Amino acid sequence: DAIVGDEALCVVDFCCGSGNFGLALAALLPKCSFLLLDRNAHAIDLARQRAADAGLSNVSVVVGNVEDYEGKFDVALAMHACGNASDYAQAQAI
Questions:
Q1: Contact 21/77 with Cβ under 8 angstroms?
Q2: How far apart are CA 23 and CA 91, in angstroms?
């Protein structure tokens, strides 16, 4: 919590895959909410199950494309974005 203090930031993990990075951060930062987004439905199903198995109530998952995302957020992650997806993620973040 030293990273975010008392703020409840909303973090979006674009192109999250099965959630390796976003789920680890969600466990470390329980005051923050995490939205994991990926266009691969199977990967999102895995992320959803992994979040449930870990008891992470601060995680939601969505099947979708980065360029179509219209929600608000404080922090954008795109560790697994490649090709045009990295450009779309940067555009979302600015």
A1: yes
A2: 23
Strand partners, 1: none
Question: Which has the closest alpha carbon to 47: 66, 21, 10?
Answer: 21
| Whole-structure pTM value | 0.89
pLDDT in tens, 20-34: 999 999 999 999 999
Q: Are 15 and 37 in contact (CB under 8 A)?
A: yes
DSSP state string for the chain: -TTTTT---EEEEET-TT-HHHHHHHHH-TTSEEEEEES-HHHHHHHHHHHHHTT-TTEEEEE--GGG-----SEEE-TT--THHHHHHHHHH-
